[in-house]
Amino acid sequence: MPTTELDTLAVNTIRGLCMDAVQQAESGHPGTPMGIAPVAYTLWQKFLRFDPQDPIWPNRDRFVLSEGHASTLLWSLLHLTGVRAVDPDYEVLGRQSVTLDDLKTFRQLDSRCPGHPEYRWTSGVETTTGPLGQGVATSVGMAMAGRWLAARYNRDDFRVFDFDVYALAGDGCMMEGIASEAASLAGHQQLSNLCWIYDSNRITIEGHTDITFTEDVAARFLAYGWNVTTVADANDLDAVARAFHTFKAETERPTLIVVHSHIGYGSPVEDSPKAHGSPLGEDGVRTAKRFFGLPEDEQFYVPAGVRDWFEQGIGARGAGLRTAWENFFTSYRASYPELADEIERIQRRKLPDGWEAALPDFPADPKGLATRDSSGKVLNSLAQRLPWLMGGSADLAPSTKTLLEFEGAESFQPGSPDGRNLHLGVREHASAAVSNGMALVKVRPYWSGFLIFSDYAKAAIRLSALMEIPVVHIFTHDSIGVGEDGPTHQPVEQLAGLRAMPGLLVFRPADAGEVVETWRVVAGLRHEPAALVLSRQNLPTLDRSRFAAAAGVARGAYVLADAPSGEPDVILLATGSEVHLALSAREELAVDGIGARVVSMPCWELFDRQPQEYRDEVLPPAVTARVGIEQASTFGWDRYVGSGGAVVGMHTYGASAPLKQLLHHFGFTPERVAQRARELVGARQREAGA
Ligand SMILES: Cc1ncc(C[n+]2csc(CCOP(=O)(O)OP(=O)(O)O)c2C)c(N)n1
Ligand SMILES: [Mg+2]
User: Fold this and answer.
1) What whole-number distance in Å separates Cα of residue 671 and Cα of residue 588?
2) Is 172 a pocket residue for ligand 1 (Cβ < 6 Å)?
3) Is 176 a catalytic residue?
4) Where is this site: Important for catalytic activity (predicted)?
5) Given its phi and psi angles, is residue 167 left (phi above 0), alpha (psi -120 to 50 degrees) or beta?
6) Rounded Cα gap, residues 109 and 670, in angstroms
7) What is the pTM of this model?
8) Which atom of ligand 1 is nearest to the CA of 170?
9) What is the pLDDT of residues 463-495, one digit of tens each?
10) Do β-strands 530-533 and 203-204 pair in parallel, antiparallel, or remain unpaired?
11) pLDDT tens for residues 174-186?
12) 130 CB within 6 A, ligand 1
């Protein structure tokens, strides 16, 4: 397909829009899109199987702008190709996702064109990017989910899923550790449906990459098992197209296309880090427009014929593919009604009918079992009713108990792409990002590791919350309960950090009963991620005929056991393993005639959403003698115990010793908790008497 004048004009139109948007906002990165525009253009116009009229068509190719600071590139493409907006009920609307006016308000409050691409906010954005490396890592999860969907749903006569995933990345993405983790996994998985485009302009913010990044990236990716091809000049549209053909022809490896480009191409700051982070200035913009043959006095200029050109290219191809797919899906539904029903539910994040029947019951048991074990059992039951629930661990499945063990649950491997047990390797950060990618393709992913190492994955966990996608992050070994492994493995501040993330539901269930109820809530989530924080050590399974029902989990916190009078002198608040400690302390206090209420608080976020009335019922404002108990940083507990309360928590990083010694050493004993409670009750009585 020889390059035409319209190709060149379309590329330069994109460049003009990007320059103008940054100039108008007086903020942004103009140089990056100018350099790589020809590649993004070629991909969208000639290859991407994407219908702007239906940007959520399930079998569309995915495009991820991993160099999210070049967002104007995506905004321009969404505008010029006429991508339509979609509402939260998955209905495609009449209006455009990005209008010219949106581009003019780039980076302003409420604009559809924020500083970085934001999933859920602007239709056509497949994932939120900006933290470098996240986009490429997320794209691996998308490709894995694509593989799995194809394996499960395609039939000889029907290729329901065969989409490809493209990610455009810069030097920064290539430097980030998460990209290496993800590339290593993608190479092992032989994801030939995955194509990364490396925008190698050899410039980052501090200058030329000579000062810091001199490795042979191509050789690195060859070592990962990737197919690597190079384009010597980003402006050579034919060479760019050949590279994409090379990707399409590859059947066993992911492809990396290394594209040599020039940041700020055509502007006075070409090949300079000055093309970063600030507008070109009016003179700079004029110079560049002159270079590209665009009218210097026009802003946000779309020459006649350019929109039509996109319509004839990506528009016509996408519409043709999408309508053909819809037609054959009608026949598919006739031949395979159950599979078609699953596909439709997946698209709308709906669960199969009767899924709750699978949840097990755990009889009361003083010895009990670790919450990681009960969670593993619930997960195994649930997964049998929820075929698109899949996941794994960052190499710790035997410890996190996340392996699916029922008949037919295979490992996801190149030779068994319908497997649901993912082996993510010792790669926590990529594990979370890959899970995000899978959730964006709408299967239900979970991944697991030790709570202490959730820090390694934080940036991707944060993105799951920001994007409002239902990833389940499972963390076991949740406290100093890990014992002998010592301070390196004893989480302290991780719970507070996770709880500080807006939109992430953090659950720390106290027993098997609460684990069941946690999964009941989590399975039903459609737009929220959850973190499950589970114990390594056994915890008694509470006798729910003596204590309140575990269904209270759905409200975040509930009165598990009350003072005999119903009017407590003191409230003991706890999560997870410490709930049992609180129950013991309550008995001890009863001997002294002190009435203690125990409140189990498995999910602070859900409790905070309850009406004031319920919250006051659980934590009556008049009862200010309150003790919070948690084997973690005390950070945040003051919110529930108030200024008159106390918290028994961790103030150091723990120690290496058998669990019993640690509990004694750090004050997690019924005597210590009861003592704190007595002190508070005594103080309140003195105050009342004074
Ligand atoms: C994880 C992360 N660290 C730092 C930044 C800040 N940052 C934005 S752009 C950039 C330079 C990126 O260089 P490159 O990927 O080569 O893009 P180019 O300079 O070529 O546009 C940096 C460090 C970021 N967005 N994400
Ligand atoms: Mg660069």
Assistant:
1) 8
2) yes
3) no
4) 29, 276
5) beta
6) 52
7) 0.98
8) 15
9) 999 999 999 999 999 999 888 999 999 999 999
10) unpaired
11) 999 999 999 999 9
12) yes
